[in-house]
TrEMBL record, chain A:
Homodimer. Belongs to the aldehyde dehydrogenase family. Residues 23-50 form a coiled coil. It is found in: Endoplasmic reticulum membrane; Microsome membrane. This is Aldehyde dehydrogenase family 3 member A2.
TrEMBL record, chain B:
Pfam families: Aldedh. Residues 18-422 form the Aldehyde dehydrogenase domain. This is AL3B1 dehydrogenase. GO terms for cellular component: cytoplasm. Keywords: NAD, Oxidoreductase. The gene is Aldh3b1_0. Belongs to the aldehyde dehydrogenase family. Signal peptide: none annotated.
Length: 451, 468
């Protein structure tokens, strides 16, 4: 308890010193972060390989490229984002200054996840630094190599008191959450999201919760199946299915189910070769516990493709299940593994109803040549975000807010949205002490005339 | 669960898509306008009965400001509802990228008693505009107003989508056992915590408009007469029961000596020699609240006012001096017509004093020297800030209204209300063609592909990052 209190206390004292407020300081810290990512690229890739068996080029595109992009964008745009924003005035305030001032919140807590352990800690950190806050970073202990590396590297490049890394598991995180923060950004699962929000409520701390759910993927009969399936295969099986916005399950007409399986099968050969297990580009399940969890979802299911597994190496082959019953276990929780259930539906109406009966997902995907149909699916459902005719990609456009809704989360970040999430928008109205005559109308004694 | 039926009925209505068309939302909003027009007299009478609210104040805060918000929303709704197209990176130039404003679903609005119509109606405007179904829970403390809301409001709105629930703490607690898709609460920090804890069970996002002690710093260089009038107006409006009222004043002993007579004159100009007889001065809402505020009078020394009448729940416009930071009146939000003056040596001391306390909902600084006003602004933190006046930042709908830290989270007014009650959904619509362009992202990964990605997404300070 004392240790956490000291760490947060030090961050708060550092914030109160005011040194994180000047833009030059923030940009200097971001520049240092950029140097860190560039200089320590090898070490970062090695940690990702150790934690998730992620291959070099893959890890680079998914975790490092995005971070460098976000850093460059933030450093370039920060002056314009942070500038006071004048607002429209009315007759009464014509002669006054009215604007919104972007100010830091104070001490921000960032809790990372294990599936993209570097980017999910770095991207929030970038936004929190840009907004002028002090930050406490708590990387996931499940991806322990990346956690250890982040704990080693950040103090070497950044202001030690303003930006701290705390490592540890559930007990340490629980202790940390008893402290008072000015914003908490948590990436992880729904159950823990509730615990984080309840802890935040004690201090009236605003939260951004990036959670998950079952992201549905509707494939219309009117679409280029080869292209659709290639894109879906890429998004589903990357990182061995352990992606919060992976297409979790497919909804399609029974008449195309077979073709979907065929196309995915072909694509898998193209991506990983005949023997997936020996492909250097196919990852592994992060640990035994999750391996067992995902494997158990296959019980009693019709396996159209894949199903092979090897406990020792936490390998599960890219798998497709067909004619899946909506009541089965694999349709209850977020799969977070390389298992793709197909649930057949007779129409787009049925698909929409199916989706709406369930918790709001983090992402929603719809494939069709028919623009009207895509528009309809989007407007009659709700989800954190959407990509039409592809998967995952809305994540990579930082001008789009990235976040969930309902059970999949609250709040959003990326790009300018990160800056706004970690800032307080303070309304400012500056009047003149003169011109008192215009105020006379509002003072008592009142009269009908004044009204 | 007594409210489960109601909540699921509203949720079913929302899922049916009834509230999504703009025409529907406009019609409901127009009906709200008719409610304000038809019931204006009753509202003025009810708030006069509940709070001794002067008709001028009631008309201003409960009718006029609400209608402003209504008109602003009606005028702009179609624009606000439109998909917001965003800048795209090079690789997505052929795609359509936009932010959709989706309704959340079933919204709960919990309102307090001090501006009993305004503080449910203005959030309601935003919630309806954003396409939600809404349950309104007006305060049981302002009884007559509660009755108007419970009896009259439902007949103006679509009963399938909007409902009023009445009751006190037990009823609100039971209501909070249900799953809502958004909760908007205006009230005190302790209850704010309870609401957010209840919301956490369902991961319901919240906006909490809370309160605190709003400091008012008066520098030595200022027009004392004008300062006194603006501060007095803000402090004694609604008998001090305003979340953004200047709670306490910080100034030097020299300024205090000048302010006291100026404040005395302002009070006399506003309310006459006996404010109790003025039709323009309000009353405390209830016995419990009256006793709480009355107890605070024992802090420091009464320089102006100090008279009370329990039967009428009247507390005179009062100014206290010789107030110590440890006095009872400096421990809680006053929410009554008492202005304590805390003497400080200089601006730095005032800023330190402010910063050693919870961040307030509003912060005021008075000076004819711009630099002083800016210094106070820059070196403190608060929900909102007004230089050289009180309350007025509230009246500009283009400014977001909300707290920070203990004074709240989230914001509303004008477009900010609409944004608060909408889920901003990031959408990317791509074409099925141009598939070869996607090739570098697919396995098998190779140094060559890696080279392509690296080249295509070379990141420099000036360029966009073109990812994949």
């Amino acid at each position: 308890m004392e240790r956490m209190q000291q760490i947060v206390g030090r961050a708060r004292a550092a914030f109160n010193s005011g040194r994180s407020r000047p833009l030059e300081f923030r940009i200097q810290q971001l520049k240092a972060l950029e140097r860190m990512v560039q200089e320590k690229e090898k070490e970062i890739l090695a940690a990702l390989k150790a934690d998730l068996n992620k291959n070099g080029p893959n890890a680079y595109s998914h975790e490092i490229l995005g971070v460098l992009g976000e850093l460059a964008l933030t450093m370039e745009k920060l002056p314009s984002w942070a500038a006071p924003q004048p607002v429209k005035k009315n007759l009464l305030t014509m002669r006054d200054e009215a604007y919104i001032n972007y100010e830091p919140l104070g001490v921000v807590l960032v809790i990372g996840a294990w599936n993209y352990p570097f980017v999910l800690v770095m991207q929030p950190l970038i936004g929190a630094i840009a907004a002028g806050n002090a930050v406490v970073v708590k990387p996931s202990e499940v991806s322990e190599n990346t956690a250890r590396l982040v704990a080693e590297l950040l103090p070497q490049y950044l202001d030690k008191d303003l930006y701290t890394v705390v490592t540890g598991g559930v007990p340490e995180t629980t202790e940390l959450l008893t402290q008072r923060f000015d914003h908490i950004l948590y990436t992880g699962n729904t159950a823990v999201g509730k615990i984080v929000m309840a802890a935040a409520a004690k201090h009236l701390t605003p939260v951004t919760l990036e959670l998950g759910g079952k992201s549905p993927c509707y494939i219309d009969t009117d679409c280029d199946l080869a292209v659709a399936c290639r894109r879906i295969t890429w998004g589903k099986y990357m990182n061995c299915g352990q992606t919060c916005i992976a297409p979790d399950y497919i909804l399609c007409h029974p008449s195309i189910q077979g073709k979907v399986v065929e196309n995915i099968k072909e694509t898998l050969k193209e991506f990983y070769g005949e023997d997936v297990k020996s492909s250097p580009d196919y990852e592994r399940i992060v640990n035994q516990r999750h391996f067992k969890r995902v494997k158990s979802l296959l019980e009693g299911q019709k396996i159209a493709l894949g199903g092979e597994s090897d406990e020792a190496s936490c390998f599960i082959a890219p798998t497709i299940l067909t004619d899946v019953s909506p009541e089965s276990k694999v349709m209850e929780e977020e799969i977070f593994g390389p298992v793709l259930p197909i649930v057949t539906v007779k129409s787009v109406e049925e698909a929409i109803e199916f989706i709406n009966l369930r918790e709001k997902p983090l992402a929603l995907y719809v494939f069709s040549n028919n623009k009207q149909l895509i528009r309809r699916v989007i407007s009659e459902t709700s989800s954190g975000g959407v990509t039409g005719n592809d998967v995952i990609m809305h994540f990579f456009l930082s001008t789009l807010p990235f976040g969930g809704v309902g059970n999949s989360g609250m709040g959003a970040y990326h790009g300018k949205h990160s800056f706004e999430t970690f800032s307080h928008r303070r309304s400012c109205l500056i009047k003149d002490l003169k011109m008192e005559s215009t105020n006379k109308m509002r003072y008592p004694p009142a009269s009908q005339k004044k009204v | 669960n007594p409210y489960a039926g109601l909540v699921s009925h509203l949720r079913a209505s929302w899922l049916s898509g009834k509230t999504w068309p703009m025409e529907y939302r406009m019609a409901q909003l127009e009906a709200l306008g008719r409610f304000l027009d038809d019931k204006k007299q009753q509202i003025l009478e009810a708030t006069a009965s509940d709070l001794g609210k002067p008709p001028f104040e009631a008309e201003l805060s409960e009718i006029f400001l609400c209608k402003n918000e209504l008109h602003e929303t009606l005028n702009n709704l179609s624009r606000w509802m439109k998909d917001e197209h965003v800048d795209r990176i090079l690789a997505m130039q052929r795609d359509s990228a936009f932010i959709r404003k989706d309704p959340y679903g079933v919204v709960l609005i919990i309102a307090p008693w001090n501006y009993p119509i305004h503080l449910f109606l203005v959030p309601l405007i935003g919630a309806i505009a954003a396409g939600n179904c809404v349950i309104v829970k007006p305060s049981e403390v302002s009884k007559k107003t509660e009755r108007i809301v419970a009896e009259a409001l439902p007949s103006y709105l679509d009963k399938d989508c909007f409902a009023v629930v009445t009751g006190g703490v037990p009823e609100t607690t039971r209501l909070l056992e249900n799953k809502f898709d958004y909760i908007f609460f205006t009230g005190s920090p302790p209850v704010g915590r309870i609401v957010m804890t209840a919301a956490a069970k369902y991961l319901t996002p919240v906006t909490l408009e809370l309160g605190g002690k709003n400091p008012c710093y008066v520098s030595d260089t200022c027009d004392v007469t004008n300062v006194a009038r603006r501060v007095a107006w803000g402090r004694f409006f609604n008998a001090g029961q305003t979340c953004i009222a200047p709670d306490y004043l910080l100034c030097t002993i020299e300024m205090q000596e000048k302010l006291i007579p100026a404040l005395r004159k302002a009070i006399d100009d506003f309310y006459g020699p006996n404010p109790r007889e003025s039709p323009d001065f309000g009353r405390i809402v209830g016995d419990r609240q009256f006793q709480r505020v009355q107890r605070l009078l024992c802090s420091g020394r009464v320089a102006i006012g100090g008279q009370t009448d329990e039967a009428e729940r009247y507390i005179a416009p009062t100014v206290l001096v010789d107030v110590q930071p440890s006095d009872p009146i400096m421990q809680e939000e006053i929410f009554g017509p008492i202005l304590p003056i805390v003497v400080i040596a200089n601006m730095d001391e005032a800023i330190d004093f402010i910063n050693s306390r919870e961040r307030p909902l509003a912060l005021y600084a008075f000076s004819s020297d711009d630099k002083v006003v800016n210094q106070v602004l820059e070196r403190t933190s608060s929900g909102g800030f007004c230089g050289n006046d009180t309350l007025m930042h509230f009246m500009l709908t283009s400014l977001p209204f909300g707290g920070i830290g203990n004074s709240g989270l989230g914001m509303y007014h004008g477009k900010f209300s609409f944004d608060t009650f909408s889920h901003h959904r990031g959408c990317l619509k791509r074409g099925m063609g141009w598939e070869p362009l996607n090739a570098p992202r697919y396995p098998p990964y190779s140094q060559q592909k890696f080279g392509v990605i690296r080249a295509a997404s070379k990141v420099t300070r000036k360029n966009d990052c073109t990812l994949l």
